[in-house]
Amino acid sequence: MTRPITAGIDGSQESLAALAWAAREAVRRDRPLRVVHAWRFQPHEGLEAGITGDADSQAQWVHTAVTEAVGTVTERHPDLEVTTDVVEGPVVDTLAAAAAGAEVLVLGSRGHGPIVGFLLGSVGQQVIAEATRPVVLVRAGEQPSAEAAGREIVVGQQGEPEDSADALRFAFETAAARGATVRVVRAWTLPPVFAYSPGSLKLLDEAGGLEPYEKRALAAAMRPWRERFPDVPVEEHVEMGSAGQVLLSWPEAQLMVVGRRAHRTAVGARIGSVAHGVLHHADCPVAVVPHA
């Protein structure tokens, strides 16, 4: 079964930008587009003029908004296969379920529609933390020109080669579809002296120091991806600093890709600090890719 590119919309400008981004990606990857609108009935508070408080009227408003949004997409991409699902129910659960069957779930970075939007701060973070597939966040005003050649896809690599394999795979597949360059960034910091073992000290000595060691580690992690995607240009960058700060130092990226492990707490799943920081401060769309 071919996984669709799935866009979650809620009527906000941010979600419409996400829908446009998802449609372009579906065309590039030759995949169908699925549009999901998850909503909850509200009696009367917070509704815009012209939307009454009964459930039937709100449902009709939602269906009309989805039809209009999809109409804009099909007009721009007449050959694109599009399906729609309007679901009244728990928003996080609905979108996490939609992500499970998708190649990627695309959402607006913020939402505040007249019917409860799904990206109201912590709710959006819960969707990302619960999703088992990549989630891309897109801000309002994102233009197709931002995907032009010359703007790189920036992805973070850390730890052992397998630790970032899913994020690297997503970055290279996206770059291959766009004809873009992948810039792979590995950030490093000075570890506490007591963290060194005799074996690690020997490896660092043989490598000539910390930075050469990190460069060799990145090169080793990149070797299989260079072989798998020989036509994708690659830039490798190693820099001392926090991972989030180093990633955000590339403001001209067309897409930023970060891996994440969901941290379980007493109040639910939470995304890691690097993904959290990049999501809040990146100017371009951000893809958050869960580790297997």
TrEMBL record:
Stretches assigned to the UspA domain: 1-139, 153-290
Short name of one Pfam family: Usp
Superkingdom of this protein's organism: Bacteria
Sequence intervals crossing the membrane: none
Entry similarity comment: Belongs to the universal stress protein A family.
Family annotation (PANTHER family): ADENINE NUCLEOTIDE ALPHA HYDROLASES-LIKE SUPERFAMILY PROTEIN (PTHR46553:SF3)
Name of protein: Putative Universal stress protein
